[in-house]
TrEMBL record:
Annotated protein name in UniProt: GIPR protein
UniProt keyword list: Membrane, Transmembrane, Transmembrane helix
The encoding gene: Gipr
Broad class of where this protein is predominantly found: membrane
Membrane topology: Multi-pass membrane protein
Domain called G-protein coupled receptors family 2 profile: residue spans: 1-109
Length: 109
């Protein structure tokens, strides 16, 4: 239910101040940041959780007396599993433009 606290004010602001055409366009930055700030906070929290989990994984993998190649493989496999699960890829694109431009970062997103 927490997202409702951010979505409802955003919808009201969009309806009152930017209700022309498609809601995909973000021409007024203030209205856009009402919904974008909570998203950025969630991405940041997920990234912190990801870093902490990777630190724990590294400690656990190093604690076991296993061959060096197997250790790296296990760590890489678990890390690559966590990246899409926690949305770490969003950190790269967090502040990428949402506008109409055709920049390389927007195309990659």
């Amino acid at each position: 239910g927490v997202p409702v606290l951010f979505v409802v004010p955003w919808v009201v602001l969009r309806y009152l101040y930017e209700n022309e055409g498609c809601w995909e366009r973000n021409e007024k930055a203030a209205v856009w940041w009402v919904i974008r700030c909570p998203i950025l906070v969630a991405v940041a929290v997920n990234f912190v959780v990801f870093v902490r989990i990777v630190r724990i994984l590294v400690a656990k993998v190093r604690a076991h007396q296993v061959s060096r190649g197997d250790t790296r493989l296990r760590l890489a496999r678990s890390t690559l599993t966590l990246i899409p699960l926690l949305g770490v890829h969003e950190v790269v694109f967090a502040l990428a433009g949402e506008g109409e431009g055709g920049g390389g970062l927007r195309l990659a997103r």
